[in-house]
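Example S7 (structure tokens).
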């Protein structure tokens, strides 16, 4: 039997970082407890002072299949490279120049949302499909990655779904995993 996981980010501004990652992953902010129309109302009802109401935030996959993402305020800033990172699938089913162009398009879209581009790794067939290393607004590294058309080297199957980039629609496909090399 497998275990359910939660991914936790230490950060300085949980609400802002949760909003960024909700857009990237197509997730949504977790609903407040039943009987409370907003998190602010709930936190006030349980006596949390206004200055502590951004100490945490959480995202959930609207499909219910991905892990919960939790953001918790910590006093210190990020000081070193991540030992664990997320690979965001943003060019499923694409190959060669089309795949790298889709990754670049997603990178530019996320830069407009506060991400930083760190480096591009060119494809090196047959095992490395190319990826772009990014950082979220608080400096946490992540990769815009791909899925090989035949699915080799991954734990998820390849997808024919094309990326959708617009301010209203997240530009990624989520919940597939493989090593990206960073």
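Recovered sequence:
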């Amino acid at each position: 039997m497998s275990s359910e996981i939660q991914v936790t980010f230490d950060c300085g501004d949980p609400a802002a970082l949760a909003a960024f990652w909700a857009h990237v992953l197509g997730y949504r902010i977790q609903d407040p407890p039943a009987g409370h129309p907003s998190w602010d109302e709930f936190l006030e009802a349980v006596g949390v002072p206004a200055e502590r109401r951004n100490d945490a935030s959480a995202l959930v996959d609207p499909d219910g299949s991905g892990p919960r993402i939790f953001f918790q305020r910590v006093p210190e800033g990020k000081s070193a490279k991540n030992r664990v990172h997320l690979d965001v699938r943003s060019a499923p089913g694409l190959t060669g120049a089309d795949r790298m162009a889709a990754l670049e398009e997603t990178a530019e879209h996320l830069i407009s949302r506060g991400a930083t581009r760190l480096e591009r790794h060119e494809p090196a067939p047959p095992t490395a499909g190319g990826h772009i290393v990014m950082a979220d607004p608080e400096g946490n590294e992540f990769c815009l990655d791909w899925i090989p058309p035949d699915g080799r080297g991954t734990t998820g199957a390849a997808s024919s779904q094309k990326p959708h980039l617009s301010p209203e629609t997240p530009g990624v496909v989520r919940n597939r995993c493989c090593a990206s090399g960073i």
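Notes on this example. Helices lie at 14-25, 39-45, 96-111.
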